[in-house]
Amino acid sequence: QITLKESGPTLVRPAQTLTLTCTFSGFSISTAGVGVGWVRQPPGQALEWLALIYWDDDKRYSPSLKNRVTITKDTSKNQVVLTLTNMDPVDTATYYCAHRDEWKYVLDYWGPGTLVTVSS
Amino acid sequence: DIVLTQSPDSLAVSLGERATINCKSSQTVLKSSNSNNYLAWFQQKPGQPPRLLIYWASTRESGVPERFSGSGSGTDFTLTISRVQAEDVAVYHCQQYYTTPNTFGQGTKLEIK
């Protein structure tokens, strides 16, 4: 059974760096084709794809984040970490991590999400 | 980036009636090498994460009721709910995974009339 859960601060000050951890179970990120992605959703708005890391450490980012975002993995801990620098109130959102299936290529299992508010 | 435009933004359907949601892509998401359309549909209820319904444009995810179906190819796609039930009230999102960034549509809100 695949599960994922996001953790990190609920409140971040403007200009600070956000670090979110996705802890997962039920799969190995070392399996060929597997990945973990991050998606966010501002209150009442659409989903926004942020980043994806693959089993072979290939990383893909949203160009709209303009070098603010970094994704890494710790295979031994079953964790994927998302870092977003220079936070702004417009980054207030629920942040989700999700499992990328090696056969379907799609994000098929999602964590419950964590709401991050950016405010002074 | 590939832009996905969903229509309508919202719709109200009577119980037992059909609901149709469209998703138009700014460029093809059909990969000629394998004839797969890299298009998925998600359902999202308030306070919950998205739930995968359909992938490869028309393949139903395990456990998804048969009343949900996906169709289309290239740039034009449709999610159909054949007989809407009360528990189908949600926001529906399409997503392309043909190329990164794997963009989403703006979402379509389904309500009961």
**Ends apart, CA distance between termini of chain A:** 40 Å
Q: Radius of gyration of chain B, Cα only, in angstroms?
A: 13 Å
Q: Beta-sheet strand percentage of chain A?
A: over 45%
Q: How many strands, what sense, and barrel or not for the largest sheet of chain A?
A: 7 strands, mixed
**Within the largest sheet of chain B, what's the order of strands?**
2-12-11-6-7-8
Shape of chain B: globular
Structure summary:
The complex is a heterodimer of chains A (120) and B (113). By secondary structure, chain A is mainly β.
Task: Please name the defining characteristics of this protein.
heterodimer, A: 120 residues, mainly beta, 7-stranded mixed sheet, 4-stranded antiparallel sheet, B: 113 residues, 6-stranded mixed sheet, 50% strand
Task: Please describe what this structure looks like.
The complex is a heterodimer of chains A (120) and B (113). Helix content of chain A is 0%, strand content 51%. By secondary structure, chain A is mainly β. In chain A, strands 2, 4, 5, 6, 9, 10 and 11 form a seven-stranded mixed β-sheet that branches. A four-stranded antiparallel β-sheet of chain A has the order 1-3-8-7, with no helix packed on it. In chain A, strand 9 and strand 10 (107-110) form a beta hairpin. Chain B is an all-beta fold and 113 residues long. Chain B has strands at 4-7, 10-13, 19-25, 30-31, 36-37, 39-44, 51-55, 59-60, 68-73, 76-81, 90-96, 108-112. In chain B, the strands form three sheets. Chain B has a six-stranded mixed β-sheet, with no helix packed on it. A four-stranded antiparallel β-sheet of chain B has the order 1-3-10-9, with no helix packed on it. A two-stranded antiparallel ribbon of chain B has the order 4-5. In chain B, strand 9 (68-73) and strand 10 (76-81) form a beta hairpin. The mean pLDDT of chain B is 97. Classes of the chains: A mainly beta (120), B mainly beta (113).
